[in-house]
Amino acid sequence: MLIRCSNLYIGIYKHRFVFLSYLCRVKLKTNIILSLLLATIVSFMFIQNMRKSVDVKIPALTALDSQKFDMKSLKGKVCVVSYFQTWCGDCVKEQPELQKLQNRFGDSLVILMVSDEPIAKIKAFKERFQSNLSFYHSDAKLKTDVGVSAYPTTILIDKKGKEKLKRVEGIDWFTSETIQAVSDCLK
User: Fold this and answer.
1) Which helix (H) or strand (E) holds 35?
2) Global pTM value
3) Could you tell me how many helices (H) and strands (E) the chain has, helices first?
4) Which residue stretches of the chain have pLDDT < 70?
5) CA-based Rg of the chain, rounded to a whole angstrom?
6) Burial 119-156 (b: 16+ CB within 10 A, else e)
7) How far apart are CA 133 and CA 153, in angstroms?
8) Which residues fall within 8 angstroms of residue 49, CB to CB, at 6 or more apart?
9) SS3 of 31, please?
10) % helix / strand / coil in the chain, to the nearest 5?
């Protein structure tokens, strides 16, 4: 009788265990499905938010000849703004890419090279690379005032002043993707 009770107890215990493990599996499957659903919704919202056009705020700029840059001159133009530093290796590598892009699109594309370093350093950088891109000094600090997190940070801006493409620490600007994006902005 004791053995039978023990077997009965073990049998009930096993059934309880089977039932509990079944509940855990059902709960686990439900949790996995709900987690995947939630992740999908959050990802969709994140992607939609990324696709929204963002107005780009360019700080006040001074040309290398100490003349103030007129921001109104950018109205209705497609523009690439590269926030760079003269000491930055990737910024050096980005120069020829942006130069090729400028050569490809000519006057229909405005490229602004912007640094918050002293004008003398920016001039020396431009001369060192014999660049014909337009270089500017920003009175605003790029990291703290403009929100640049890393160099180079380069942004393609459409005719309406909206961000269309942004690369942080990205040096490849003369690609089919970028050429297509600039072409789309020029339409």
Assistant:
1) helix 2-51
2) 0.70
3) 4, 7
4) 1-28, 31, 34, 38, 42-54
5) 29
6) beebeebbeeeebebbbbbbeeebeeebebeebbbbbb
7) 16
8) none
9) helix
10) 55, 20, 25
Q: Using the structure block, give the residue that is written with the tokens 């004791």.
A: 2
pLDDT for the residue 37: 72
Distance CA 173, CA 180 (A): 11
For 111, the enclosing helix (H) or strand (E) is: strand 109-115
What phi and psi values does residue 112 have, to the nearest 5 degrees? -115, 120
pLDDT at 140: 93
How do 134-138 and 162-168 pair as beta strands?
unpaired
- The pLDDT score that the predictor gives to residue 170 is 81
